[in-house]
Amino acid sequence: MKLNNKTLVVFASTLVLTGCNNLFSNHVKCDDESATSLVTQVLKDDLAQSLEGELKALIKNGSIKDLDPAKLKLSAKNIQFSLLDSRTDFIDPNSPKTTCSIDLTATIPSDLVKKSDEARAKVDVMSVEEHANNLGVNYENNKIHLTLEYVLQPTDKGDKVLALLKNTSNVQTLISETLTYAFLKPQIEKNQIKNLEASKAAVLRNNANTATYDANNDAIVAADAATEAAVVAAEGYDEEYE
């Protein structure tokens, strides 16, 4: 996983309009309920896309041999996006674009944050809170706060609305990384157990080799002593008959 290295991307989605229930005459209103629902859907789609990218990288690297990949995607359903107090920032007189802002709160369940932090600690990676600070994300008590900027624009036919989100990249990075580490926690623990068992086996082999070396060395010392004793005895024997 790459931390703090994602390029700002503008995410977009469309809302289909039918019949006479158009959201706009020339411009879409920022506080229209259907428009804000569309923004929420874009946030969810973006998170799903981020997790898909994380998953592909993990599979390619062989990092999740003991885990069910589907669980990472399903974890996105635990994130709650709340949008309040939309504002109209600019109505472009030369196009149907309307620039808006709204207060976004994204809530991550505390158990997922806990699992993510535990997994991060095991591999010496910064905590969720530290990661948020590093990204410049307003994060406190498992909640992310952002003044979300977005643009609403109807198509030329007037039957659809396009929603473009401008400044969600770091927020989505924090959420996707948090979910990914929480997902990886069991695999990290299994890997550590395997590494510990391998280390123990290596120590036992080393001890066995050391014991064999010591035994061989003792035998050599004993043989040398016996040889020396035999030489001394032989010299004494020769002296008796001189």
From TrEMBL:
The lineage of its organism: Bacteria, Pseudomonadati, Pseudomonadota, Gammaproteobacteria, Moraxellales. It comes from Acinetobacter terrestris. This is Lipoprotein. PROSITE patterns: PROKAR_LIPOPROTEIN.
